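WARN no homologs supplied; continuing
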Amino acid sequence: MIIHKGETLFRQGETGGLYRLRSGLLKIVRVHEDGTPTLVNIIVPEETIPHHSLMSPSPNYGTAIALVTCDIETISPETWYRDLEQHPEKFRAIARQLQDKLRMMQQRIDQLTEVTPAMKLVKLQRWMHHYLGSLVLTDVLTQEEIGQFIGLRRETVNRLLREQVQRGTNLL
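OK structure emitted
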């Protein structure tokens, strides 16, 4: 299935499908009780999601929205869970995927623990450049989302991006 930038794959609270992202990028947004949306994750190619439902069904933690055009494989939950029961070795593949995600989250922690806000932004830009190609970070995330993702206020992100433009270093 193909979904385009801004389209929703699944919604927070729903229970149901499993998906493998063949290409593209998805963002996972969690909406809090007061209605405030928060960017909590970026899904990259070859991930099967939702992560928390890989071994047993559970309501979706957030809403998955395409950041760019995405090619997504739909996986039947019934088939997925039956295969796990019949082929326990498949748990190893799940463990590897979760290990890869854990390593990605460790990179995010590295971004969040940078001393200067400017370096937090640069590390995120470098990481995302790997997936974005010729696009720049602000083509797919708002300044508010960038700030949520690296622990900065939107105003700080705005200032840092302006400074990068002035220095000619915003092409990461």
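Residues 61 and 154 are 24 Å apart (CA to CA).
OK
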